[in-house]
């Protein structure tokens, strides 16, 4: 990985930490108040986190000059795929393997990070390096 790619990946992880923080706060709040189960709460949190991630990735990570009308649908398509990966991971880890939901969410987050970084790099923000 070149230095430029490494720095962009680090920025992506840093920006993602902000969105992930939002997701985890929503997850914890909804589960601890018993409003929703872990899988549904994680999905709702991921939607809020994706909004934070879009704004920060657009401006900071990728320094996009693309029109929001073009970039946003691509980003949110990638986010929807990430939401699907997150949902499947959470369902399997919480319901089948019986991991505590916060540990399951950490594992799901790692899976989503790997898949969405590549897709956002080469497609959503129209850069040609991963």
Automatic annotation (TrEMBL):
Gene Ontology CC annotation, any one? plasma membrane
Q: Which InterPro entries did the record assign? A: GtrA_CellWall_Glycosyl (IPR051401), GtrA_DPMS_TM (IPR007267)
Intracellular or extracellular location(s):
Membrane
Keyword Transmembrane helix attributed: yes
The processes (GO biological process) annotated in the record are: polysaccharide biosynthetic process
List residues traversing the bilayer.
Answer: 9-29, 35-55, 75-94, 100-125
Query: Topology with regard to the membrane?
Result: Multi-pass membrane protein
Similarity comment: Belongs to the GtrA family.
UniProt xrefs under PANTHER family = PROPHAGE BACTOPRENOL-LINKED GLUCOSE TRANSLOCASE HOMOLOG
User: In its UniProt entry, what is this protein called?
Assistant: Putative flippase GtrA (Transmembrane translocase of bactoprenol-linked glucose)
């Amino acid at each position: 990985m070149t230095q430029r790619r490494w720095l962009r990946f680090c920025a992506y992880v840093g920006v993602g930490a902000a969105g992930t923080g939002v997701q985890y706060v929503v997850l914890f709040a909804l589960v601890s108040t018993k409003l929703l189960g872990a899988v549904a709460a994680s999905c709702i949190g991921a939607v809020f986190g994706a909004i934070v991630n879009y704004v920060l990735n657009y401006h900071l990570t990728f320094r996009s000059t693309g029109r929001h009308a073009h970039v946003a649908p691509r980003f949110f398509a990638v986010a929807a795929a990430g939401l699907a990966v997150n949902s499947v991971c959470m369902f399997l880890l919480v319901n089948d393997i019986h991991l505590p939901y916060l540990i399951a969410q950490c594992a799901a987050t790692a899976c989503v990070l790997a898949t969405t970084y590549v897709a956002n790099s080469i497609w959503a923000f129209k850069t040609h390096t991963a």
